[in-house]
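Supplementary Methods, section 5.1.

A reviewer requested that the exact input to the structure prediction be made available. We therefore reproduce it here, unchanged from the version used in the analyses.
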Amino acid sequence: MARRIHGEKPVLLAAAAVLLLICAIIWWWKNEGAGGGDKVRQPLLSGAVRSGNLSVDYEIPQVLADAERLSLNAVNVPVAVRIPDLTASDFELDPASLDKARELIPKLHQQGMRVLLEPYPWINNGSEVETKWNPQHKDVFFRNWNEKVLRRLVDELAEPLSVEALVAGSNLEHLEGESGQWVELLKGLRTHYDGLITFKTNWWYTAVWDESSRANFTRKRDNPLWAEVDFISVAAYFELAERPENTVGELISALGRTEVYDREQDVAGELEQLTERWDKPYYFAELGFPARQYAAKEPWNPSPSSIFDGDEQARLFQAYRDVFRGRSHFLGYSVFAIGEDGSDKHYYPSQKSVEIIRSW
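The structure derived from this sequence is encoded token-by-token as follows.
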């Protein structure tokens, strides 16, 4: 009897090893093989979004390297919309930009990163900024934006590639006030796209001495289009301070009371007003500063000075981090801009900025 038990031990051990191997194969299939190796991606609305905006001329290897270097968990992927001039009402998606996004998005998902897809106005070959775009025929614009841009992005990228969010419009200052048209468009978009929808508004200013600026903010805050989005996106190029360099403490103070032109704008307070008005979180869909002196005065300007200052850029990121991190309505931020680090990319994060961003 003892001899029989002794002889069965190798058999039992072999069976146990096979069982462990089968369990390992099943685990791998569920977690890696069946999902194409994708890492787990948390829902965007769970918060703590750490994203990056891509330069339109991004390179895919650089995107993946930058996302890892900055410890990002999301990426804003642009698809260029070719627009001939600042009054054009007709336009088309750029085929090469569309194809590049189609290649990039699965790679981002495999790395566990969420994707926000953005139609990016590329006006007169990039020589004009989208904030100045004022289509001559508004009805024609909305029809074309819906059919030629948003529906195509949904059908060709967002739905088949399970994109988490779609930016329905970006910094369209001359069109944002067409609230009835946007509401109709966004309601229709919901019937074709299962992901999240947002709209990106450009930064604004208010001044204690300028009643019209406060009225403009009230109109922005009360725009009915916000009822149709899942979260509110803001391009956060607020003008804070006039000094070439600032301490973190000075910048934190300026986010509550800006110094430029003695406006005394309460940036943080106005963002809270916007989110509380609609009970929806807000997200810095563009948070970037040129690595130059005077970046706090003109963060929207790639070259406010010819003097490089990566530390000032980092201090601005730190001030925003210290003011907004942990706020209940704050969804997160997207670093502007990564994916291409040429000498003309003044917004590309300095090494000191990388350290701050990774700590956020």
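The radius of gyration is 24 Å. These observations are discussed further in the main text.
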